[in-house]
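Q: Here's a chain of 396 amino acids. Please give me its 3D structure as tokens.
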Amino acid sequence: MVHIAPAWPEPEPLDPLGAPVPQYGTASLADLLPTIVAGLGVADLATTMELAPADRACVFLIDGLGWELLRAHPEEAPFLGSLLGTSFNGTGRPLTAGFPSTTATSLASVGTGLPPGAHGLPGYTCEDPATGALMNQLRWYPWTDPYVWQPYPTVFQLADAAGIHTCQVSAPNFQHTPLTKVALSGGTFHGRLSGEDRMDLAAQQLAAGDRSLVYTYYSEVDGKGHRYGVDSDAWRGQLMYVDRLAQRLAEQLPPRSALYITADHGMIDIPFDPESRIDFDEDWELRAGVRLLGGEGRARHVYAHKGAAADVLAVWREVVGEQMWVASREEAIAAGWFGPHVDDRVRARIGDVVAAAHADMVIIATEQEPRESEMVGMHGSMTPMEQLVPLLEVRT
């Protein structure tokens, strides 16, 4: 008798249409400032998000403090944890960051009130179609004119023009960066080195006008997460510190104020093993037909040689399609990954292939991106750990 082995079905790649697209227009970071300034009397900014109005509004953005991370660490963040029920207008729900869930993209979404497909910073790195070079949008290298790259006014500029007392309180070294210019400029910039000084000055500036909009920022939760991981004592120490900063600011709020505490993305630790970290620079299949690798480990823009885009898409789906949502440029745009509309000037900045991690893995590039490839904590994709961010609220 002949025994025939059962024919197991071939694994199916993840469907790009099944990716949890950010809630642009209703519950994303891009909707936050337009909603706040609408409550201050600045109209004509499109959003359907609802927040109770306040005469004075302060946004405290904590880089890297995702919703799931905050919920998992009540002992390290007792003050922030006590505010979880206030999130998103008292619904106890988070916001979505946007895609990719990375700092340059998210800060541009916050400051302009636009999704990535409009403001045009669609990743950590992306191709500049005018030069063919891979541009780092966080470090703004190679140089390109910031106001050509991102031509829209910021919400801060619109608020300032409407007579609202508007300012940013952040680290002094951020004042003149191109990213600040295109995403966060408008009103007055106040540079302060220590977190305590930032909180104190933010409260003072909030009280300085009958209608005020103040933005302040802290980066080192993200920094320690990248270097040591979110399962490290160093990261927990930063969470404890920023919890005290948030409470310090909340206790100084002037009357008729709303403090919103949010983040630009979450983070996930990636194991250091070959299955979790696929090295593009050593993988001939993933490299075939590719002229530029952009984005970051969990949100890749893949730029193909002329005529090779379909083959690159097929290979990436075959090799990593069970671990990543792999889409063509047109599929990603049609699915709304970058927002409901992508401007013509932005379209070619998006990879011929876009790959977003679903599993706990990354595609590193040890030769091209040695520093990034050594990071412990990563982000960029649309999983809840990376995508969901708090919108905690304190009112006076």
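Q: Can you summarize the key feature?
A: The two ends are 82 Å apart (CA to CA).
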